Amino acid sequence: MSASTRRRAALVPYAMLAPGIVLFALFMAAPIVYTLVLSFQKEVVKGLGLGSGGKSLQFAGLENYVSAFTDPEFAASVGRVLVYGLILVPTMLGLALLFALLLDARRTGAKGFSRVSIFLPYAVPAVISSLLWGFLYLPAVSPFYWVFEQLGWEVPSLLSPGLVVFAIANIGLWGGVGFNMIVMYTSLKAVPQEIYEAATIDGASEWQIAWRIKIPIIAPALVMTALFSMIATLQVFAEPTTLRPLTNSLSTSWSPLMLVYRDAFTRDDIYSAAATSIIIAIATFAISFFFLRVVQRRAFGQED
Amino acid sequence: MSTTLDSTSTSAIVQREASARRREGRDRRAVTRHRVPVSVGSTAVLLIGAVYCLMPVAWVLIASTKDASELFSTFTFAPSTHLWDNLVELSAYRDGLYWRWMLNTALYAGVGAIVSTYISALSGYALAKYTFPGKGVVFKVLLMGVLVPGVILAIPQYLLLAQVGLTNTYWSVLLPQIISPYGIYLARIYSAAAVPTEVIESARTEGAGELSIFHRIALPMLAPGLVTIFLFQFVAVWNNFMLPYIMLGDDRLFPITVGLSGLLNQGATVPAMYTLVITGALVSIVPLVALFLVLQRYWRVDLAAGAVKA
Prior knowledge:
The complex is a heterodimer. By secondary structure, chain A is mainly alpha-helical. Chain A has 13 helices and two strands. Chain A has a domain at about 70-270: MetI-like fold (Orthogonal Bundle). Helix content of chain A is about 70%, strand content about 5%. Chain A is flat. The interface between A and B is large, with 113 and 119 residues. Chain B: It comes from Agromyces agglutinans. Chain B: Belongs to the binding-protein-dependent transport system permease family.
């Protein structure tokens, strides 16, 4: 092999990576850097603020960050999302684990039908599922309110201000329980059957096996699904945005991302929107960091 | 501990599917040997879960047979006879705008996911099968990208694309969703596991070029894993609401999610829109659910099927 062909061979992996790296730089790295730059700027109005020279950009230091942290609307939206996450994540993962264990149990029937049915909502986009549930929450449409009415019960609408967080959490639960169930079920299926046989011979009941053997074995899968669910929780946007036309209980700053959207496009204040984005991104990073450490350690052992 | 940690990555799931499927076969044989009585309690709990998940789908199926007045007056699960009328009305809405939204969605998700899968495969393969200076840095930076929430990028992506005049075009929704750090991450794992280095070496000694080795030898071996990457990306694009919501102003470019959300908004003042929205929601999930059921087996991919056995 001549020196020039060897040099060309050395360039091959870079050439293969080039499209990915270019797209990464343009659509991920550049927007991040740009957001950072924006978050440290502000627009200052000179004189009456008219004409092209009426506004100028200035370095704002940490001003946008300080105002984001002291903004009661931002604090309120974070609070709502925390409540939403506290309702959604334990319920969703608890049910996903229950269903996964039942699918794995020898004495459960109708497994195929149930598995497909519970996984099916994963194929429905969040906007469509919010739309379907949104109608099912309307007392005039909902079958539950029909039952309540027959019983003569006065039940407040799920779309009322105090309950709307449950309404949104239910949409998240419906869309997410099946995917998490499949992740857990798959890792249950990978456990050698012999372990259970040995436990059965020792006289362990199905519940003891589930509690003492199966759950500890799939603990890493539980950690992962919990982290993914928490990250998704922070970013809730489509569900409350879709539900807004059906209720007065959802403000334009209901979730942190809705607040960012409103600041950037309704109020034309991209600078504070940028600062809020960075705060959300850093919070996401802080949560994800643990996940990264867990995954990176093991995944590439099989390479040359 | 190290083997159990492996099960945390979704990619590892794919590898485990193979053994899972083998074991399922074994289970079935075991069941025929000595039949276990079915437990009513646990079956019932699972069926309640299934009913909960199917209920909104059943509702939209029934609700789209009702006309505007029946929607809020008849019992929820009492079907009516207006499905065809509703479909005609939906198709007639602004000269078939709805069907345009469906085609747009297929374009964004379909073409977007195919291009994304190809680029992920190329990058993942390069990272798995070559040693070169800077490899570690490139991979670490890409891996950081997995953690960056796409929705947070949407606004700066909009501002940057606005400067080159690309907002409110097909490109503004297609291009930002082609790069998928998670896809590259999966492709690297698949390449490492499914493409034996010896096969590449022997193709090299026979004088094959590096790119043709990738296209003719590696891609076919990676095919089952690439279907999984494609599905993940397809669902991600189809699901993405915020990006097209921000990028697009012209409703002829909308994907179905943004279009229907806009219709629902109009319903607040024109309640007759509600039947359109409901029928539109039904029609939009039919192909999705069908595709999902048909490709269901690809959510469990057997990596061994793609590899050359030594």
